[in-house]
Design brief:
Blueprint (H helix, E strand, L loop, with lengths): L9 E5 L5 H11 L4 E4 L9 E6 L15 E4 L5 H4 L10 E2 L4 H19 L2 H9 L15 E5 L3 H11 L4 E6 L8 E5 H10 L3 E4 L13 H5 L5 E5 L8 H10 L2 E6 L19 E3 L9 H16 L15
Parallel strand pairs: 1-2, 1-3, 3-4, 4-5, 6-7, 6-9, 7-8, 9-10, 10-11, 11-12
Helix pairs in contact: 1-9, 3-5
The chain binds NADP nicotinamide-adenine-dinucleotide phosphate and glyoxylic acid.
Length: 317
């Protein structure tokens, strides 16, 4: 148990994949006194002070007149910020929890290493029964660039640093990055891309970043670069990825996110020989560790302190 100060607080849960029961158990563990209610049976709407949500219907959070904070179940808040009817003045908190961060570092390390050692080429050789004595450079000679250097980008960089990769990051504002080169803003983008052989996208989806993974961006990278998009489908222009793969500008792409999810059965990405598709599972919020973080934030709010990890509504993340 984390706290006993959540007595009589009512939290409404709107989760995905009917995971409400799992979330209730997690909150029970974190704070047994918290009164968790389901979206389908919220009871007296005026009693709800906290909302813990993933993709709520637009305008639906206005039903709760005494809401003190909206917690996003995911790190990304694009599912909320598209709602012009969000209740005014209620802070939105994005998900920052250690296991979500760990999962993303695992995903990024897995796919960076896979491209770095050119596992796709080795697998192709195996299928062709070819003894391929492929020699690849070691990590200090492989330039990896991380777009979006927030909680997840920085943790991924830490994981990659263990192998000694030549790292760079790109963010909106200037960053101190002792482990690598740091670039920021639109002025820094082309230089960042010019030195990036494996590009990892961990940006939030905002009006500024929508469609950023496009033909011009790929053209600014060295020929034969690899792309890993573990952020949002809205970042990538799908036809431009196909074109860059076709021309050889991109050697391969690992895509966890798509414009339409689930990816339609007839989508060309499923069977493309140089695209790896994963089903938006790069990293998933883990109930127990996440509930602990949410309860700690509720305790802060009840103590009159501002919650941690609030979203800057102007910046959109
Ligand atoms: P975060 O801590 O808010 O970091 C966001 C980073 O992006 C910051 O470094 C920020 O720059 C940078 N950024 C924002 N707008 C930019 C712009 N216009 N130009 C350049 N850089 C910009 O977010 P996070 O927790 O790391 O999460 C990142 C995203 O990952 C989420 O928004 C979500 O969409 C995605 N995600 C995906 C999965 C999955 O399973 N596929 C799981 C979790 C999260 P500053 O540092 O200068 O502010
Ligand atoms: C997942 O996509 C998240 O935003 O946490």
């Amino acid at each position: 148990m984390v706290s006993s100060t959540c007595e009589l607080m009512a939290l409404i849960i709107k989760s995905d994949f009917a995971r409400d029961v799992i979330w209730r158990e997690a909150f029970q563990f974190a704070s047994p006194e918290l009164d968790c209610r389901s979206w389908q049976a919220p009871g007296d709407l005026s009693e709800i002070e906290y909302a813990f949500v993933w993709k709520p219907e637009k305008g639906s959070l206005r039903r709760f007149p005494n809401l003190k904070c909206i917690f996003s179940i995911g790190a990304g808040v694009d599912h909320l910020l598209g709602d012009v009817d969000l209740p005014e003045g209620v802070p939105v908190v994005r998900m920052v929890e250690p296991e979500l961060t760990r999962g993303m570092s695992e995903y990024v390390a897995l796919h960076v290493l896979r491209y770095h050692r050119d596992l796709p080429a080795l697998q192709q050789s195996q299928r062709a029964r070819q003894w391929n004595e492929l020699i690849t450079p070691t990590a200090p000679h492989r330039r990896v660039g991380i777009m979006g250097f927030g909680v997840l980008g920085q943790a991924a960089a830490e994981a990659l640093r263990v192998f000694g990769f030549d790292l760079a990051c790109w963010s909106r504002t200037a960053k101190d990055f002792p482990g690598g080169e740091s670039f920021h803003g639109s002025d820094g983008l082309v230089s960042f891309l010019a030195r990036t052989e494996i590009l990892v996208c961990l940006l939030p989806l905002t009006p500024e970043t929508e469609g950023i993974l496009n033909r011009d961006l790929f053209a600014s990278m060295p020929r034969g670069a690899w792309l890993i998009n573990a952020a949002r489908g809205g970042h990538q222009v799908e036809e431009d990825i196909l074109e860059a793969l076709q021309s050889g500008q991109l050697a391969g792409a690992t895509l966890d996110v798509f414009e339409t999810e689930p990816l339609p059965k007839d989508h060309v990405f499923w069977s493309h020989p140089r695209i790896t598709v994963t089903a938006h599972i790069a990293s998933v919020t883990q109930p127990r560790s996440a509930a602990v973080e949410v309860v700690a934030n509720i305790v802060r709010i009840e103590a009159g302190e501002p919650p941690l990890n609030t979203v800057d509504m102007g910046a959109g993340y």
